[in-house]
Structure formats: C-alpha cells, structure tokens
Amino acid sequence: MRCARHPRIADSGWQNKKLLTAEVRKEFAKVADKRAKQRPNQRKSYLYVQDCIDAILTAIDRADGRVNIFNLGTDEYCEVNESIGWICEHLGLHPKITYSGGERGWIGDSPFILLDCSRIRALGWRPRLTIHQAVLATIKYVSADTARVKAEF
Questions:
Q1: Is 19 in contact with 83 (CB distance < 8 Å)?
Q2: Which of 7, 12, 107, 129 sits CB 3.0–4.6 Å from 45 for a disulfide?
Q3: pLDDT digits (tens, 9 = 90+) for 61-113
C-alpha cells in the first residue's frame, strides 16, 4: 500500500477561486477592486499535477515496504502577493487588490503547510517545476482552454 499527502495541486483543471477563474482575463480586467481572502504575506505551497503523478509512480515502482506513506511537494513556498503578481503580470493586468481574510483566510484554510518530502526524495523523485513555473503553466493552459471553448460557441 502506498499513501501520498500533497499540497495544493496546480494543473490544467486548477481554478483557485481567489486568484483564477474560468474566464481569466475578463474576470481580472472587470474587477477594479480584487479581494483576496488571504493575508498578503500568507504562505502557500503548490505542486504541479504531473509532478504529483510522477511522484506517485516513483513510489509505486521503488518503495518496498508493505505500507508506505509519502509527503509530496516542493521544498519552497510562495506568498499570496507573489502568486497574484505572477498571474497579473502574465495577463498584463494591474488590479487594485484588497485583502479580507484575516489570519487564516477562508474557513477551513490552513495558514501554512510545507511538507517534509525527504522519504520520496530518497527514492530519487524531484519535482520538475517550481511553484512559479507550475502557476504560469496552469495560467497558460487555462487561458488557452478558455479561448478554445469561446471559439467553439
């Protein structure tokens, strides 16, 4: 048995409602006052979906215990301000951003999780993308997918 615990996943289907919506440009451009339900310096960790899949496959292939539990993730984190900045820069937008979330953000939010991934690293797995690269790859995919969907209708 292999078990994996991972941080937030950034992928082609990722739509963080605080930062990214189905109609990315339209939503950011339309809203002059963008509200983030997090503190501006709240720390977040993301893992790109393909890196997550690769880690799980590595564990299946290389772990030899009856029960194996692995934390998956990068060895880095970003602040809410950084990820919002990456998104806005990529989209060429400059919204005014206000923060309304207090210490924990929204109900059920974890203020900060950075997992110790040394066990999966010992099997030879490393994430291919940094958090910054994962967020940008996701935005590019969602932007392209949104354009494709609009063109179909």
A1: yes
A2: 7
A3: 999 988 899 999 999 998 888 888 888 888 888 877 777 766 666 666 666 77
Q: Check: CB of residue 94 under 8 Å from CB of residue 88.
A: yes
Residue showing tokens 């958090």 = 131
- pLDDT tens sequence across 36-67: 666 667 788 888 989 999 999 999 999 998 88
3-class secondary structure, 58: helix
Say which residues have a Cβ less than 8 Å from residue 44's Cβ, sequence separation at least 6. Answer: 7, 8, 38, 77, 78, 79, 80, 83, 112
Q: Where are the beta strands (DSSP E) in 30-81?
A: 33-36, 43-44, 46-48, 68-71, 78-79
| Class of domain 2-152 as given by CATH | alpha beta
| Alpha carbon distance 8, 72 (integer Å) | 10
In 6-153, at which residue ranges do the beta strands (DSSP E only) sit?
A: 8-10, 33-36, 43-44, 46-48, 68-71, 78-79, 96-99
Distance CA 99, CA 89 (A): 19
Q: Residues 22, 97, 81, 72: what is their CA dihedral angle, to the nearest 10 degrees? A: -30
